[in-house]
Design a protein that fits this description.
Elements (H helix, E strand, L loop, with lengths): L3 E6 L4 E8 L2 E4 L3 E2 H9 L4 H14 L12 H24 L1 H15 L10 H30 L6 H4 L1 H5 L15 H11 L8
Antiparallel strand pairs: 1-2, 2-3, 2-4
Helix pairs in contact: 1-8, 2-3, 2-5, 3-4, 4-5
């Protein structure tokens, strides 16, 4: 099976999840669409965001795309950038196996080149890591905006107000050939299963 998260939608909004990693297959505890979305909306991203800011700061010292010779400062900065990325993945996987594994799978099986720590890959690595790490925070913010708007009874075109959701809107068939490799993609899928007035469902 392809690495990633496989889900099956059961009656009454129950979600059955199986996580496939390089270490093997893990059946996760069943959850519900509502519980998973609410749990994600209540997460505190403060420590995570500090690491994201730190990586963005380090990225300022990485060599530009046209450069083919590197200063010692640039080499050290890139090594630090890669080390911090790996430390974040290790910590996140330990504290939140689902999110950590999905982020690691996205990066190492989809975004990053096999030689991602090599300086020749610096542009792809920088862009891929920063985008992948920021995405869950961006989704968290916009998901809470949706919830607050629903509480206020506001009506709006979600596809127009939150075009970011469309970017990750995909159908994930419950088959052995399709899996989500992205935490945002997984939770956007859950939104399509929720009873929300989304014009693109």
């Amino acid at each position: 099976m392809v690495e990633g998260l496989y889900i099956s939608m059961l009656p009454d909004g129950v979600v059955e999840r199986t996580l496939v990693t390089p270490s093997g297959t893990m059946a996760l505890e069943k959850t519900t669409v509502a519980d998973e979305l609410i749990l994600f909306s209540e997460l505190c991203f403060d420590p995570y965001s500090e690491v994201a800011k730190y990586l963005a700061t380090i990225a300022m010292y990485l060599p530009p795309p046209s450069e083919h010779t590197y200063t010692e400062e640039e080499i050290n900065a890139y090594e630090l950038f890669c080390d911090v990325t790996e430390d974040l993945l290790d910590t996140l996987t330990e504290e939140n196996p689902l999110s950590g594994t999905l982020l690691a799978t996205l990066l190492f099986r989809g975004v990053l080149r096999p030689d991602w720590r090599d300086l020749t890959a610096v542009d792809d690595t920088k862009a891929g890591v920063l985008r992948a790490i920021v995405d869950p925070m961006r989704f968290h913010f916009q998901l809470n905006e949706v919830f607050f708007s629903m509480l206020d009874g506001k009506e709006f075109d979600v596809g127009e107000k939150f075009p970011y959701f469309k970017e990750y809107y995909v159908i994930m068939p419950n088959t052995s050939t399709s899996a989500s490799r992205n935490a945002v993609q997984f939770r956007t899928f859950l939104l399509t299963e929720a009873s929300l007035p989304f014009p693109f469902i």
